[in-house]
Design brief:
mainly beta, seven-stranded antiparallel sheet, six-stranded mixed sheet, 2 helices
Length: 231
Amino acid sequence: MDRAAIEITPDRGFTMDLLFEISQPVRDDASIPRIDGKGARMRLDVHSLAIPDVKLIRTPRFSDARGYFCETFQRADFAAQGLANDFLQDNQSSSDRPGTVRGLHFQRPPFAQTKLVRVLRGSIFDVAVDLRRSSPSFGRHVAIKLSSEGNEQLLVPAGFAHGFCTLEPDTVVFYKVDQVYSAAHDSGVNWADLELGIEWPVAAPEAILSEKDRRLPMLDDLAPFSSEDGE
């Protein structure tokens, strides 16, 4: 699906639908073991977004009269694309109403998490903010629409804050993480921080948030932290 890229905040962030550089396609490799012995790879398309460490991933759906079938994750095929995360935990959220905002969340090292996000029902405006202080894109963001119909997944690396706003009722979001939850390392950035330049699809007075998320600090007030991805 080709969509035009739109940059709306050139000073701090990017919102696109979708901006990417297409990575090299995966080649068939019979050396990768499969239960059926055929060695066939899943057709995995990985696209780098405006902040290249954030990846958009798509796999094909196979449809018939019953509906569809698709593979969404196969560890060896992801590793062949350089995405060798060891995912340890699956999380799922359901939001009843459009305009529900969850985020912007992250965990501090040594419990920093890479997230692989997809939508099981409905659609979201999904955001990743670069918190790596040594990164040239520190404080900037990418934002895209993810939907169950579009079958996209977003890889949000460790060192980024992640959040989303629901666009439809009864939206269900599923994501894998490569580190378990740790309350002592749980942190976040305020979704409404104007310095981030995020053009959310809901006005602040109408947004539905938890009290915990409303109290998150602005980026300038966030205590520095270090990680292997940057300081």
